Structures are given as structure tokens and as C-alpha cells.
Amino acid sequence: MKFTDQLWEEALPVYTEIENHPFNQELKDGTLPVEKFQFYIYQDSLYLADFAKALATAGTRAGNSSELLEFLQFAQNAILVERALHIGYFKEYDIDLKSGKAPGCFAYTNYLLAASTFESYEVAVAALLPCFWIYKKVGDYIYENQAKPNSYQNWIDAYAGEDFAKSVENALKICNQLAQNASESTKLKMREAYLTASRLEYVFWDSAYRLEEWPV
Ligand SMILES: Cc1ncc(CO)c(N)n1
Ligand SMILES: Cc1ncsc1CCO
Prior knowledge:
Keywords: Hydrolase, Thiamine biosynthesis
Pfam families: TENA_THI-4
Protein name: Aminopyrimidine aminohydrolase
Number of strands: 0
Structural class: mainly alpha
Mean pLDDT: 97
CATH architecture: Up-down Bundle
Helix content: over 70%
Number of domains: 1
Distance between the termini: 47 Å
Bound molecules: 4-amino-5-hydroxymethyl-2-methylpyrimidine, 2-(4-methyl-thiazol-5-yl)-ethanol
CATH superfamily: Heme oxygenase-like
GO molecular function: thiaminase activity
Function: Catalyzes an amino-pyrimidine hydrolysis reaction at the C5' of the pyrimidine moiety of thiamine compounds, a reaction that is part of a thiamine salvage pathway.
Largest sheet: none
CATH class: Mainly Alpha
Low-confidence stretches: none
């Protein structure tokens, strides 16, 4: 069994909650209130900016130049996706939110930045993997079950598309190679990091659905 199959199995209860979350169910049905989608897009632009830094940082810690290049390309793509949100959705919806990160986004981005900086390269890669894999799975699930027409089609197509699928495959391959050469204690930490980041993916969607604010 591949290491990533084990990760998937362990975090499956979290993934199931993500798929069934009203944010994704309503996105699929095209009934998600636009206010919640706008909040999500704004939070995601803040997320992607830090995610790009976490990817680049993890890349600098890779053991070879092909993995460095791969992570730098992921980082570049994250910046391009963030810019596309501004050119597309920010204009379309006239989004002018300035509230900054909600607690959910804050928790997730800071976790990824800390893991990519202070954990081992292997653990950093495991922490970054749910961002790829869960979005791919959610994108495919929504694409296959969506109401048509759907006002959120662009978003759906981005994560169900072939370019994104290729990136996800590459990230999975790197993670499996690292696990093959890792000690048992490193693999345990990788599993914990994967699970934590999966939970934070849930927290991020839930935060958007609740239009989460700081309590104070
Ligand atoms: C919160 C979040 N996780 C993952 C992705 C895709 O990498 C994204 N755009 N936003
Ligand atoms: C995982 C991910 N999410 C948005 S961009 C990106 C890197 C894809 O190359």
C-alpha cells in the first residue's frame, strides 16, 4: 500500500465531512449565497499568498533540484491563481473586503508557514499535501455531481481540470518517495501533519460558510 493511500484512509472521516459540508454541497447545487462565496474568495486570496511562500520555502529544503523546481512551480502557480482571483472574481463581484484573515484562514496559513519552515522537509511536504489532494477530490466530486448551469463553474473547472490534476500527481509522487526513505518516527509525524492540515481545510470552508469573525 502506498504511503499516500494510508494517509487518505486515515483522514477519510475528515474528507467526508468536507465533502458533505453545506459550503461544498451548496456550491455543487449552485445555491451557495454569493456573500459566502465572496467571503471565501477573499479569504482564499489571503491564503494563496501565504501558501505560495510556504511552497517556496519547502522547496528550498528539498534534497534535489528537481523537487526544488517542482515546488517553485507550485508556488508560481499559487501566485498566478491568486492573481486570477483578482482579475476575475474580485472584479466580477466588486469585492472590496479589507477585514484581513478570519481565524480559520489565520490558523491554516500560519500552520503551513510554520510547518514548511520549522519541520523537516518530509513533514513539510505532508502538511502541504492536503491543499492539493483535497481540492482535487472536492473539485472532481463537485464537477461530477453539479447542477447545470452553475454560477460557480469557473471555480469548479479550475480544480477539476487537467493542469491541477498533474500538479496533484507530482505532489503525491514526491510524498511517496520521501516516505519510502523516511524513518518510522518521521512517517508518524508526516501522518500527523497530513491530518492536521486536512482538519484545517475543513476549518477554512466552515469559516467561510459562517462568515467567521474574530470574537473580539
Ligand atoms: C484553503 C485552500 N486550500 C487549498 C487550495 C488549493 O490549493 C486553495 N485554493 N485554498
Ligand atoms: C495546490 C495549488 N493550489 C492552487 S495553485 C496550486 C499549485 C498547483 O501547481
